[in-house]
Amino acid sequence: xxxxxxxxxxxxxxxxxxxxxxxxxxxxxxxxxxxxxxxxxxxxxxxxxxxxxxxxxxxxxxxxxxxxxxxxxxxxxxxxxxxxxxxxxxxxxxxxxxxxxxxxxxxxxxxxxxxxxxxxxxxxxxxxxxxxxxxxxxxxxxxxxxxxxxxxxxxxxxxxx
Length: 161
Hints:
Number of helices: 6
Structural class: alpha/beta
CATH architecture: 3-Layer(aba) Sandwich
Number of strands: 5
Order of helices and strands: HHHEEEHEHEH
Distance between the termini: 44 Å
CATH class: Alpha Beta
Number of domains: 1
Helix content: 40-55%
Strand order of the largest sheet: 1-2-3-4-5
């Protein structure tokens, strides 16, 4: 369903950005799922790394990750992606983020709520090499995969290529 409320779209016409909070006012099922998914991911990060620092980027942008997880002084960027269907995830929205992280030499875990991430996994590997991972995470029963992905990136010896 399209958001036809003039007050919600006017700021974007004038150069403003939409934030996750502004998505809440839309009728988009995916937007509502994304807000809920981010909250669940935040809780999982706190549960898995209780002593870590977790920073959440509240501004909606394509070239910055949703979370920065700092564990034992080392950082991993976390990007969340929500699909409304269990089909293939191509990662068409990832290139601006991947380009930025490739330049910065940062590590990234992409968390996908459902679907087959094979095409996007190839994209992430091409751009970031061994500094990127994609994990299908839809709840605590996938915590092991999330922990393994993040820890494997934290154990890399060099931050920069």
